[in-house]
Design brief:
heterodimer, A: about 110 residues, mainly beta, six-stranded mixed β-sheet, B: mainly beta, seven-stranded mixed β-sheet, four-stranded antiparallel β-sheet
């Protein structure tokens, strides 16, 4: 069974600084998708960024980028120029290419200090 | 275009009562997923449905829980004889197809007294 592990229950960053959230996963599949979701206090799940495993190039969305290391099964999220609105719980998630269910990690609570 | 809608947003039940959670997918979406988030935990997959069909219910507890997605109307997650351990946030997501992006609703927070 696939598992997703986020080893940092909490992280904090100063406004305008950069922070990296870690995620590792376990799978025997060669093709799959990885995601980072943001859950603010409203609890709405918001997709931040997505990575296809067959793509070597790391995905980027504005201030958000990932470091995808397939051999190491690592998928970290880097947030540059952190803003107060980035404060939230961040979840890493995995999905098989041929599957539909998302498997989530336990989350990392990010605090942004002014 | 309205997003995924869930109601109620908050639901309080006493032990032994039934809870019905509703999910209306985004327009054009015929695939619905239910996830449960226990306090201080990540989301856990429960069930995946298409119109009138349960595709994958491997994450559903064996007893007291059921889900449906009728031809007309919202998807319903039903919990019979609720217990305190059922207290959680229940999220619905929808997608256009099996392998398309899932869009999440705002969740229903169930509290069992």
């Amino acid at each position: 069974a696939q598992t997703v592990t986020q080893s940092q229950p909490e992280m904090s960053v100063q406004e305008a600084e950069t922070v990296t959230l870690s995620c590792t996963y376990d799978t025997s599949e060669s093709d799959y998708y990885l995601f980072w979701y943001k859950q603010p206090p409203s609890r709405q799940m918001i997709l931040v960024i997505r990575q296809e495993a067959y793509k070597q190039q790391n995905a980027t969305e504005n201030r958000f980028s990932v470091n995808f290391q397939k051999a190491a099964k690592s998928f970290s999220l880097k947030i540059s120029d952190s803003q107060l609105g980035d404060a939230a719980m961040y979840f890493c998630a995995y999905r098989e290419t041929s599957g539909s269910r998302l498997t989530f990690g336990e989350g990392t609570q990010l605090t942004v200090n002014p | 275009n309205a997003g995924v809608m869930q109601n109620p947003r908050h639901l309080v039940r006493r032990r032994g009562q039934e809870a019905r959670l509703r999910c209306s997918p985004m327009k054009g979406h015929s695939h619905v997923y239910w996830y449960r988030q226990l306090p201080e935990e990540g989301l856990k997959f429960m069930v995946y449905l298409q119109k009138e069909n349960i595709i994958d219910e491997s994450g559903m507890p064996k007893e007291r829980f059921s889900a449906e997605f009728p031809k007309e109307g919202p998807s319903i997650l039903r919990i019979q004889q609720v217990v305190r351990g059922d207290s959680a946030a229940y999220f619905c997501a929808s997608s256009q197809g099996s392998y398309n992006e899932q869009f999440f609703g705002p969740g229903t927070r169930l509290t069992v007294l």
